[in-house]
């Protein structure tokens, strides 16, 4: 009886703590991004996108604009693929788990296998996949609009330049939102095999993401040897415009 009690309530301890680790890390990442954009890869990529847009618009050459449109189209195609993947996986997983959930209720899973817990797992996983779908769809929408604006760009049109910057940077943020939702979906998927794999995946995920999001920026700065670090420290990848 005691063993059964401990096994069932293992989810109540490990799963919330694993999600807390993931959420705490992403809150810390957002704080670093908004206080010092150049200290995260998200902010650094956004700043590079702003510089890219300014270079493209100020150049104004037809060949340059065509190459820029090709780059945006490539990202749009990738976003469409990820959005389709997220929606398809949510449909397939929902159908599979709804029709054959006996495996996840068997003794092979060390954890709570009650029907209500399995239902919570389904809802959590599907929510992450649908959030990823929404993020990629919005990214595609913003990038498509940026492509339209790029065809109308002319050198010296600062208002149109800021509009393109806004669409490109926001598209990048939505793209990152979709990716982060997929990361959460992976941890939720491992929860079906027990709370221990789920908690372990959260810890390893945070370690890997920290290296990718923060630590690798130090390597980037050392490699590039930035001549004007103050410019990147103060810059904000946010743009304002007026129609």
TrEMBL record:
<feature type="transmembrane region" description="Helical">
    <location>
        <begin position="12"/>
        <end position="31"/>
    </location>
</feature>
<feature type="transmembrane region" description="Helical">
    <location>
        <begin position="181"/>
        <end position="211"/>
    </location>
</feature>
<feature type="transmembrane region" description="Helical">
    <location>
        <begin position="116"/>
        <end position="140"/>
    </location>
</feature>
<dbReference type="InterPro" id="IPR006747">
    <property type="entry name" value="DUF599"/>
</dbReference>
<feature type="transmembrane region" description="Helical">
    <location>
        <begin position="81"/>
        <end position="104"/>
    </location>
</feature>
<dbReference type="Pfam" id="PF04654">
    <property type="entry name" value="DUF599"/>
</dbReference>
<protein>
    <submittedName>
        <fullName>Uncharacterized protein</fullName>
    </submittedName>
</protein>
<keyword id="KW-0472">Membrane</keyword>
<keyword id="KW-0812">Transmembrane</keyword>
<keyword id="KW-1133">Transmembrane helix</keyword>
């Amino acid at each position: 009886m005691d063993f059964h009690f401990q096994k069932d309530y293992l989810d109540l301890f490990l799963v919330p703590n694993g999600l807390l680790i993931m959420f705490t890390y992403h809150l810390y990442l957002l704080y670093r991004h908004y206080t010092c954009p150049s200290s995260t890869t998200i902010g650094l990529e956004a700043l590079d996108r702003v510089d890219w847009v300014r270079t493209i618009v100020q150049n104004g050459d037809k060949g340059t604009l065509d190459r820029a449109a090709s780059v945006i189209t490539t990202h749009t195609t990738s976003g469409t693929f990820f959005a389709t993947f997220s929606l398809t996986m949510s449909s397939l997983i929902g159908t599979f788990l709804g029709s054959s959930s006996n495996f996840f209720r068997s003794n092979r899973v060390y954890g709570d296998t009650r029907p209500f817990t399995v239902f919570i797992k389904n809802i959590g996983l599907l929510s992450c996949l649908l959030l990823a779908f929404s993020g990629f769809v919005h990214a595609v929408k913003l990038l498509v609009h940026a492509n339209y604006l790029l065809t109308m760009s002319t050198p010296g049109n600062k208002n149109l330049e800021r509009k393109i910057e806004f669409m490109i940077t926001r598209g990048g943020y939505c793209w990152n939102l979709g990716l982060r939702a997929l990361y959460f979906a992976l941890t939720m998927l491992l929860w079906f095999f027990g709370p221990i794999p789920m908690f372990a995946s959260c810890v390893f995920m945070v370690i890997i993401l920290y290296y990718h999001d923060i630590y690798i920026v130090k390597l980037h700065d050392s490699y590039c040897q930035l001549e004007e670090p103050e410019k990147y420290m103060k810059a904000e990848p946010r743009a304002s415009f007026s129609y």
